[in-house]
Amino acid sequence: MTSEIIDYGVGSDYCKLCMEQQLFDQPSTYTCKHCQISMCNECFHQHTYSLLEEYNLIQNKFNDIALQIQSKQQLLNTFRNQCMKSVDQCFDELIQDIHSLRKECTDHINEQYNKTKVTNKENLATILTGPLTREPIQLSDAV
Ligand SMILES: [Zn+2]
Ligand SMILES: [Zn+2]
Predict the structure, then answer these.
(1) Which of 4, 75, 132, 135 has the largest CB neighbor count within 10 A?
(2) Residues that place a CB less than 5 A from ion ligand 1
(3) What is the pLDDT of residues 81-116, one digit of tens each?
(4) Cα–Cα distance between 99 and 129 in angstroms, integer?
(5) pLDDT tens sequence across 117-143
């Protein structure tokens, strides 16, 4: 068969798919809108079935991918929540420690202040009641 007789193009009078199998007597009754191929009734049904199978396969893959993305998103959410919780917990502990340290510092200052105050009071009392306490020396006394 010569290439002039085998017309694989659009609008062919014979089924292109049958012609590929060396069958040249099947008239084309349909043209697939998807592939733009002319084909006979039987090939058209097989072709449609194949396209549907392919479509279902792609849709299943699409669903699988969508599920995987959802699962990854859930994992991401869980990871984020754990990180936030960990940071919150860490800062809560640090804030608690800072408060404790602040109280320790102010307590220490007050403790030292009170000790020194008591000592000063005692020293002052000793001085005021001691033998060295007297009226200031007048200039006339010295002369
Ligand atoms: Zn055919
Ligand atoms: Zn097609």
Answers:
(1) 75
(2) 15, 17-18, 26, 40, 43
(3) 999 999 999 999 999 999 999 999 999 999 999 999
(4) 45
(5) 999 999 999 988 877 776 666 667 655
Domain ranges of the chain: 16-127
CB 14 within 8 A of CB 24: yes
DSSP letter string, 34-67: TT--EE-HHHHHHHHHHHHHHHHHHHHHHHHHHH
Distance 14 CA to ligand 2 centre (A): 15
pLDDT tens digits, one per residue of 9-57: 444 588 999 988 888 788 999 898 888 999 999 999 999 999 999 999 9
Residue 40: burial class (beta carbons within 10 Å; 0-12, 13-18, 19+) = buried
Instruction: Identify which ligand lies nearest to the alpha carbon of 55.
Output: 2
Distance 17 CA to ligand 2 centre (A): 10
Which parts of 15-40 fold into alpha helices (H)? 16-20
Distance 42 CA to ligand 1 centre (A): 6
